[in-house]
Amino acid sequence: MKIGLGVIIGTVVLITVYGGTFTYNSMQPVKIIEGHGKHEVFSNVEEMEKGSKLIVIGQRLSKEDTTILDDGFGGVMGGYTISDFKVKKVVKNTTDHEFEKKDVIQVLENAAIETNLLGKKVSYFQEGYELMKKGKHYVLFLDESNSDPGTFIPVGAIYGKAPLEASGGTLEFKGDDEHDDHIKEILKKSTENYKKEFTSEN
Question: Could you tell me the superkingdom of the organism this chain comes from (predicted)?
Fold first, then answer.
């Protein structure tokens, strides 16, 4: 992956991407590029549940496929990761697929990490979304990709993933703007609602 000289030198650079922007912060030990754009909004967990075609509890496996999107001019538009997720319980399924315990599904996460040509790790993410941690358990609220059937995407891009065993109430969400408080509240409630189901499955 190539990074233009202006991106390397600049402390903060805005890169246009899919109707939003990516903010590059070169002062962090791990370079951070955060995307901002439009996404579906939910008022509460119940609304998010209704808007999901597939709700599963399970574990993020180690296999992943990372894609970094070049802008065609030596810069970067962002990135995403296809992560393998092992199902432990199907809570809701209105897709055309049948899933059961131990099945593995592919989840498209709007975040990616790579090591650039300078040997520096670069983290790309949308609106504070953090990649699922390998080996950890989550409840996922998913929709199916229109362009890649069989691949599933957290609803609202950033709402549909809640950790079930994070320590100290960590929500694994980087957002720190005022409007992010609402997202954090939904993630917190999702964790609380499904933690008992996760415990009963283990």
Answer: Bacteria
Q: Per this entry, what is the length of the chain?
A: 202
- Sketch the domain layout of the chain as residue ranges: 5-200
Does 5-200 carry CATH code 2.40.50.120?
Answer: yes
Q: DSSP per residue over 101-146, as a string?
A: TT-EEEEEESEEEEE-TTS-EEEEEETTB-PPPTT-EEEEEEEE-S
DSSP single-letter state for residue 39: -
Which tokens sit at 107?
Answer: 């989840």
Per-residue pLDDT tens over the stretch 52-71: 999 999 999 999 999 988 87
Q: For residue range 89-105, what is the model confidence (pLDDT) as tens digits?
A: 999 999 999 999 999 99
CA dihedral (168, 114, 67, 64) in degrees, to 10, reads: -50
- 178 in helix, strand or coil? coil
Phi, psi (rounded to 5 degrees) for 168: 65, 25
Q: What is the DSSP letter of 133?
A: P
Q: Which amino acid is at 118?
A: L
86: β partners: 59, 104
